[in-house]
Amino acid sequence: MHDPYEITTLNPHNATGHGPRHDAVILPADLPPGVQMVTLPGGTRTLAYTQPTTPTAHPAPPVRPIPTWARTTALLTPTIGGGIAAAGAGLSYAAPGLVAMTHALWATAALIAAGTIAVPVIRGTARRRTAPPPHITQNITATGMFGKANGTINH
């Protein structure tokens, strides 16, 4: 285990223990601000930093109201977050139905695409199967420029 260290203080006498040390004297005018000579409970006098006895009163900063935009934002933030959470939960519950609707929409789109191609093809084949219209011949004769016209129709 470690040996305990003995706390020692600087003797105001020289290293031999006899006579005063002249280089250890500090004049009161040379003390930095906040340092004073104090007497400890054991009777030893030493230099120490001291607290001011009277606390300095700092003026309170003026109270400013909270801006309206900050208050509105602070109040809307949990509402928006809750709405997003509710929408996420709703989508997770609705996902199977949305998948089924997506499949139904793709099937409808495929039916429409097939219909736009198939209807003209079916009409074209149906027209080819019907008999052509009857051939009609018409003979018209007229005498003079303003004469009466006569005609015959042959089926």
Instruction: State the helicity in percent bands.
Output: 40-55%
Structural class: alpha+beta
Q: Which radius of gyration do the C-alpha atoms yield? A: 57 Å
The main sheet comes to: 2 strands, antiparallel
Termini gap? 137 Å
What is the subunit organization of this protein? Answer: single chain
Stretches where pLDDT is under 50 for at least 5 consecutive residues are: none
Whole-number average pLDDT? 78
The helix/strand order is EEHEE
Q: Please count the helical segments.
A: 1
Strand composition percent: 5-15%
Strand order of the largest sheet: 1-2
Shape: rod-shaped
What is the count of β-strands?
4
Task: Tell me what you see in this structure.
- The protein is an alpha+beta fold.
- 40% of the residues lie in helices and 14% in strands.
- It has one helix and four strands.
- The chain has one helix at 68-129; strands at 35-39, 45-49, 137-142, 149-154.
- The strands form two sheets. It has a two-stranded antiparallel sheet. Strands 3-4 form a two-stranded antiparallel ribbon.
- A hairpin with a 6-residue loop joins β3 and β4.
- The longest helix has 62 residues, at 68-129.
- The chain is rod-shaped, with a radius of gyration of 57 Å.
- The model has no long low-confidence stretch (mean pLDDT 78).
